[in-house]
Automatic annotation (TrEMBL), chain A:
Organism listed in the record: Rhizophagus irregularis (strain DAOM 181602 / DAOM 197198 / MUCL 43194) (Arbuscular mycorrhizal fungus)
GO cellular component terms, A-Z: mitochondrial small ribosomal subunit
Superkingdom to which the source organism belongs: Eukaryota
Record protein name field: 40S ribosomal protein S2
Pfam family, one: Ribosomal_S2
An example Gene Ontology molecular-function term: structural constituent of ribosome
Homology family: Belongs to the universal ribosomal protein uS2 family.
Residues that span the membrane, as ranges: none
InterPro entries on file: Ribosomal_uS2 (IPR001865), Ribosomal_uS2_bac/mit/plastid (IPR005706), Ribosomal_uS2_CS (IPR018130), Ribosomal_uS2_flav_dom_sf (IPR023591)
UniProt KW keywords: Ribonucleoprotein, Ribosomal protein
GO biological process entries: translation
NCBIfam families assigned: rpsB_bact
Automatic annotation (TrEMBL), chain B:
One Pfam family cited in the UniProt record for this chain: Ribosomal_S9
Organism: Rhizophagus irregularis (strain DAOM 197198w)
InterPro entries: Ribosomal_Su5_D2-typ_SF, Ribosomal_uS9, Ribosomal_uS9_bac/plastid, Ribosomal_uS9_CS, Ribsml_uS5_D2-typ_fold_subgr
Protein's recorded name: Small ribosomal subunit protein uS9m
A GO term for molecular function: RNA binding
Length: 214, 314
């Protein structure tokens, strides 16, 4: 597993414009670049996958974000489609969480009796380039929303609840990570479906046996 | 109320340590937690913020099913790009990109064979999608549609059916008009329009003896200047077809010379319909292009378009 992860462009990043908080993840320096220790990426990836799985199992809304555009957006959209979740490949609208009435309120029209229009908030943000999306991280903090982020050697990992130290510049690397996370989410979905089917069956049996109207 | 809440929290803390790990403790404190029933022992993830939760302190059998119904019937946004703020636009772009990727390896028409397609106008597209598109958004859509349009229609008929939704509604009419313009009708007439400097001439050219009738009168009567008559017959002279075609025209607008040149323009177009090999000959004689010279407007500070007022030293 680790051999697959490495080789493909998960190696280090950013010449010594580094953030010293990432020092535990760094393997060493070569060609003026800090090399990321891939053992740590594996560990943190596994953790992040577990979180994804649990959240999708409980029916949460997951947002995959990558604002770089181009080929990056393709991989993000693929990942989001795979697990029936949501994507954002254009600019993050400041206020989608803290000012959701104004930014997203117009999308679902109000009924007559409603005072507030219906808006949704994500239950998890998966940031594939957190360096350019600090606003999103701030909002997540205000809205009590956990975040998973691909943390590079020039980014502070404590800003993200579940960091994954890896290279955020390579398209292949991000495709791989987004794919892995989305597969974990899909697993959660599948298990959720099984769980719900099981409960429905139990209900039906209960009705048959006890004749209750539930 | 308070005591029961704290008791709930305590219960969940203990179980969560075993299942989820130590890092989550700080995050659990921030979020709202709903205690699940004993039997199922499904611990609801603390990160899922519930807006609706039961206010009863004891959990009975009824509540068990209520909480699970909340899980299963939770409302979620319909569009994958809900959080972009422009879901319909972004979904359309995703759809077009997917199609481009899908058909990236199918053979495409070369540039010469592709007719310039007329795509739906921005206003109409706005109405169709229910959006207010910006010009750059409209242009990206059209760019992608043009990329898809180049693909050979015989290979991908479904694709072109999809693209027909985006074509301008009167494309078919225009095509028919173009086709009608290009052929000789059942009586052997070619119908064209010729224009020059505010004069418009409707011209019918048939095989015949060489008569020319303008607004019901013979050419000699209508045009008194020799120059005008010569300019009308010039296309026939150039192509050596002087006594071979009859011309019947209706002219409107402009002055005498303008009308004469308009008729000449119409005649050249009609001759090209009759025989397309004549086109290079007529082009060499500068008859094919519509003469775009028009009266220049008057400018402020000048007496006429170019004439300046007399210069005064003081």
């Amino acid at each position: 597993m680790s051999s697959l992860l490495s080789a493909n462009l998960h190696l280090g990043h950013s010449t010594s414009l580094w953030n010293p908080k990432t020092s535990p993840f760094i393997f060493g320096i070569r060609y003026g670049i800090n090399i990321i220790n891939l053992d740590y990426t594996l560990i943190y990836l596994r953790r992040a996958c577990k979180v994804m799985k649990e959240i999708s199992y409980n029916g949460g809304i997951i947002l995959f974000i990558n604002t770089r555009g181009g080929l990056f957006s393709r991989s993000v959209i693929k990942a989001a489609k795979r697990c029936n979740q949501y994507q954002l490949t254009t600019r993050w609208l400041p206020g989608t969480i803290t000012n959701s009435q104004q930014t997203l309120g117009h999308l679902i029209p109000k009924n007559e009796n409603d005072v507030i229009s219906k808006t949704f908030k994500p239950d998890l943000l998966v940031l594939l380039n957190p360096l350019e999306n600090e606003i999103a991280l701030e909002e997540a903090r205000y809205g009590n929303i956990p975040t998973i982020g691909i943390v590079d050697t020039d980014f502070d990992p404590s800003k993200v609840t579940w960091p994954i130290p890896a290279n955020d510049d390579s398209v292949r690397g991000i495709e791989l990570l987004a794919g892995i996370l989305s597969l974990a989410a899909r697993d959660g979905l599948v298990q959720r479906k099984l769980m719900l089917d099981k409960i429905q069956k139990e209900r039906k049996q209960a009705r048959v046996i006890y004749g209750h109207t539930i | 109320m308070l005591t029961s809440l704290t008791s709930k929290l305590q219960f969940v803390y203990k179980v969560s340590e075993k299942v989820l790990g130590n890092n989550l403790k700080s995050n659990i404190k921030k979020s709202i937690i709903l205690k699940s029933c004993n039997r199922n022992s499904n611990i609801i993830n603390p990160f899922v913020n519930f807006r609706y939760y039961t206010t009863t302190t004891t959990i009975s059998k009824e509540n068990k099913y209520e909480s699970i119904d909340i899980l299963s019937n939770r409302e979620i946004p319909q569009s994958i790009s809900y959080f972009t703020g422009k879901p319909t636009y972004n979904d359309l772009i995703i759809q077009l990109d997917d199609l481009i990727f899908k058909y990236r390896k199918t053979p495409k028409l070369k540039d010469k064979n592709v007719l310039p397609t007329l795509w739906i106008l921005k206003q109409r597209l706005d109405e169709k999608l229910g959006l207010c598109l910006k010009t750059h958004q409209y242009r990206t859509i059209i760019q992608k549609l043009n990329q898809l349009n180049i693909i050979i229609p015989e290979i991908a008929p479904q694709l072109h059916n999809f693209l027909d939704l985006f074509r301008r509604y009167d494309l078919e009419k225009e095509k028919k008009l173009l086709e009608a313009m290009k052929t000789v009708d059942q009586f052997g007439r070619a119908f064209t329009l010729g224009k020059r400097k505010e004069a418009v001439a409707q011209v019918w050219v048939v095989e015949g003896d060489g008569h020319v009738i303008v607004n019901g009168k013979p050419m000699a009567e209508y045009f008194s200047l020799m120059k005008d008559r010569e300019s009308i017959l010039y296309p026939f002279q150039v192509t050596d077809l002087l006594g071979k075609y009859n011309v019947w025209t209706k002219v409107k607008g402009g002055g005498t010379t303008g009308q004469a040149d308009a008729i000449a323009h119409g005649i050249t177009k009609a001759l090209i319909i009759h025989d397309s090999d004549l086109k290079p000959i007529l082009r060499a004689a500068n008859l094919v292009t519509r003469d775009t010279r028009v009266v220049e407007r008057k400018k402020p500070g000048l007496a006429k378009a170019r004439k300046r007022y007399t210069w005064v030293k003081r």
